[in-house]
Specification:
The protein is built from 8 helices and no strands. The protein is mainly alpha-helical. It has 2 domains: 86 residues, no CATH class; 59 residues, no CATH class.
């Protein structure tokens, strides 16, 4: 009985995984988008059918998020996007790389980084500027040693994971 159940669960999981992989290859027709999505994605109207399915899915999901935002959230998103576009390709690639590295971390390590960032955000502006200036004056070797020291210190400290990973 237990074996049957395990086999059934395993088969179901495999079907779901394969189904998700296949779903990524399925194109989204322009007509299947809601009116709001079409309005947001209007610049892609003529090229939509030629976009890769994965890109269509990302754009469609982004349009859903956009339509659910308040005016203030949209303004902030536009500002962030503009700042992103103004970054050099090298800087964007570095950010993507760091993001991918973060995504590969354990929930505990992610929590450590989030907690450190929150502590930094709540520091007085003059203290934050002082830390930035001191860091900028360090040699690459000194920076690496500091990162290792902070990493070691963080692993000695118990953490509270109050957010999802």
């Amino acid at each position: 009985m237990k074996v049957k159940r395990i086999v059934l669960i395993s088969a179901s999981l495999l079907l779901m995984i394969n189904g998700a992989a296949l779903a990524q290859d399925v194109r989204i027709s322009w007509e299947s988008l809601s009116e709001e999505q079409q309005r947001v994605l209007q610049p892609y109207n003529h090229a939509w059918e030629n976009l890769e399915p994965e890109r269509q899915a990302r754009l469609s999901a982004g349009a859903n998020r956009w339509t659910g935002m308040s005016r203030r959230e949209r303004s902030a998103a536009k500002d962030r996007f503009q700042a992103w576009r103004e970054l050099s390709p090298e800087r964007r690639n570095a950010i993507r790389s760091r993001y991918a590295e973060f995504q590969g971390m354990s929930p505990r390590d992610k929590a450590l980084i989030r907690n450190a960032y929150e502590r930094y955000r709540h520091m007085p502006l003059d203290r934050r500027q002082e830390l930035r200036d001191r860091y900028r004056k360090m040699t690459p070797d000194q920076r690496q040693r500091l990162r290792e020291k902070m990493r070691d210190r963080a692993t000695d400290r118990p953490t509270t994971i109050d957010r999802g990973s």
